[in-house]
Amino acid sequence: MNRNFLLVIVIVVIALIVGGVFAALYFGTYNNIVSLEAGADEKWAQVEQELQRRYDLIPNVVNSAKLYIEYEGSVLEEITSLRSQWAAASQTGDVDSINNATGELESSLSRLIVVFENYPELKASQIVEDMMIELEGTENRISTERMRYNEAVRDYNVAVKAFPGNFWASGWGFESKAYFEAKVGAEDPPQVSG
Amino acid sequence: MRGKQAMPRVSGKIFSVIFVFTLLPMLVVPAQGYIVAIEWIDEIEYYALQVDQDTTAEIVVVVLRSLTGHEVTDRDGNEISDIVQLGVYIFNELPLETYDGDTVVGIGKEGKDNGVLILVAIEEQQWRIEVGYGLEGDITDIETNRIAQDYLVPQLSQGNYGEGIYDTLVALGQQIPVTNQTVEVRGTYYYEQDTATEEVPFWETDWFLYSIIILLVLLGFSVGFPIFRRGGGRGKGGSSGGGGSTGGW
């Protein structure tokens, strides 16, 4: 009788410990994924803000460059039309199409910067130089925020896909997030050497 | 990466022992020179301290011999050789030692994000001015470029690194509005690439320090060890997101 009672106590204690560990793991994992997701979402908002900044800046860049670039007018037209395409993609909110539109826009903006560097008379213009500095700063901000977003997504995806998150994440409604990649031709943020 | 105060601070007794131990090697090995003349480093530190006291903003100068070989690595362990990415990393993530031996991550005050980084790479002849989120309104990208073109580039191309950096620092400092708030100042603003890390002289190695400490303990000395206060410390500072401008000379 006494021995059985002791056995029951031991089993109950073990069950409590196991249950406690399980509960801690379960809720800990949930909280971890929630906070990682919130971090990634917050960083995505930063990316969007900088993309918007670029969107707003492009007309100024194009207009100031128009006064000086005669032979390369097609680049400016291309940038203008890609800007509209980007806006359309941005409306859909689909990461893949935003990725594509962003990549194309970025590669033509970096072509503009190459043009800028090849025209000494362009560099002589304070307005155009300022615009290019502003454009460069915007591109740097985008690549910085993009890097931070991708790092946050990586942490989040690892939490969702790795043990123990992989058991529960889909049940909780968490899915792995897409990276925001720079497309071919836009790997390097354009740079202006003063 | 170390500040001007490269040697750890030690209290009186331990210092005299180290002094004796290091006297001989110091006579044999020539002292490591700074890229920027020590007089200019003092000027830079002094002005940056004034800015910190008057505005709470921190303007930090980092001078590298080269964009390669500095051993500042990204999350994946690759050395960062792009000056823009390096600037962002140094600004936000690299622990920098301050005058009291503490390390602080993030230039500027936490929450205010009011830091500025002037980064110069001598060999590649590149500069970058990185502005924290909180100062992007006071110092626009265009202004950083104009300041750099007016004060930094002409002097750097003459080889007057100290003067160019100092003038740039002053021009940037004048952009930041004065506040009557008082917060703890950073205290160390100038950093140079530590070229001695590749071959650490034996008197700076840990085992040498430890053996002296053990020796002193055995001899019954009671001394404080401020060197153990490093790490943790004041923790997190401000952050930036790629604002500012870049160029060459």
- What level of helicity do the residues of chain A show? over 70%
How many domains in all of chain A? 1
Sheet bearing the most strands of chain A, described?
Answer: none
CATH architecture of the domain at 35-197 in chain B: Roll
Query: What low-confidence regions of chain B span 5 or more consecutive residues with pLDDT below 50?
Result: 221-233
**DSSP strand count of chain B:** 9
Number of helices of chain A: 6
Q: What's the β-strand tally of chain A?
A: 0
SSE string of chain A = HHHHHH
The fourth-level CATH homologous superfamily of chain A is LemA-like domain
The profile of the biggest β sheet of chain B is: 6 strands, mixed
Q: Find the structural class of chain A using helix and strand composition.
A: mainly alpha
Number of helices, where a helix is a run of at least 4 consecutive DSSP H or I residues of chain B: 6
CATH topology of chain A: de novo design (two linked rop proteins)
Q: From the coordinates shown, what is the CATH architecture of chain A?
A: Up-down Bundle
CATH class of the domain at 35-197 in chain B: Alpha Beta
Shape of chain B: globular
**Whole-angstrom Rg of chain A:** 26 Å
What is the 3D form of chain A? rod-shaped
